[in-house]
Specification:
The chain is of the alpha/beta class. About 45% of the residues lie in helices and about 10% in strands.
């Protein structure tokens, strides 16, 4: 039986999280680390490797073409444009079921290599999980079909892959990881009105102050959308339903 440790605790932000001493102790004994490319890993993975040189670090996103981390706003009027995309790539691949299939294959392959005696078990479990992902993907497409092309305004640009997979438009409030200034806020409110935004999706790891200002200005609802929710499939279904529900 495997002993699994989750590095970023529930409710914590992967952008600012620092491992606890108890977690660092477990890292020194770990055989394998599954990386996803969240910000804290860039700073800590080299330290983990120093603490445990024998530990394998597996990039679960191998084979996935990552999108730029969106922090720009498209406006119908060129003079209203604000900022271009960030240079960093979006790590939130787990919010797209088709991409999670790729991650699952990378994980199963790594587990089979490190534990060849149970390779067949990993393969069987992978096939089962892939069927579950396909079923989820079909449900999401059916739910989101009526609101194809709708804008999804979010505080932190976590939902780019989800939007890309299901024909939505993500409009982030953040500007390069920072809250918008007054002039940019005016542009966001204008864009939200132009796009008919009726809900702002926020997550517990970030401030909701600016989202509330925009919501009050356009008469929109605030909807909680945690990209790190443990109930992965149920969470995606809930968000999909909310996206279409508020569009009616």
């Amino acid at each position: 039986m495997a002993d699994i440790t989750v590095m970023v605790a529930p409710g914590a932000s992967p952008a600012t999280y620092e491992p606890k001493p108890s977690q660092m102790k477990k890292v020194t004994k770990a055989q394998i680390y599954f990386a996803i490319g969240v910000p804290f890993e860039k700073a800590w993975l080299p330290r983990f490797k120093t603490q445990n040189p024998k530990m394998q670090i597996i990039d679960t996103t191998r084979g996935i073409k990552k999108l730029p981390m969106a922090s720009h706003h498209h406006h119908k009027h060129p003079q209203h444009s604000t900022l271009n995309t960030q240079h960093s790539l979006d790590p939130h691949v787990w919010l797209s079921p088709p991409l999670v299939k790729i991650q699952a294959r990378n994980i199963a392959e790594a587990l089979g290599n490190i534990d060849p005696a149970h390779k067949a078990v990993y393969k069987k479990n992978l096939e089962k999980f892939e069927l579950e992902i396909d079923e989820l993907d079909l449900k999401l497409r059916e739910i989101l079909k009526p609101c194809h092309g709708n804008a999804m305004m979010v505080f932190h640009p976590s939902w780019g892959y989800f939007a890309h997979a299901y024909g939505l438009k993500q409009i982030p409030i953040e500007i390069e990881g920072k809250e918008p200034k007054s002039r940019e806020l005016v542009h966001l409110i204008r864009e939200a009105k132009e796009e008919g935004v009726k809900a702002l999706f926020v997550q517990p790891q970030f401030s909701k102050r600016t989202a509330r200002v925009i919501a009050e200005s356009i008469g929109a609802k605030i909807v909680m959308a945690d990209p790190l929710a443990p109930d992965w499939s149920d969470n995606l279904l809930r968000i999909a339903k909310k996206v279409c529900e508020v569009a009616r």
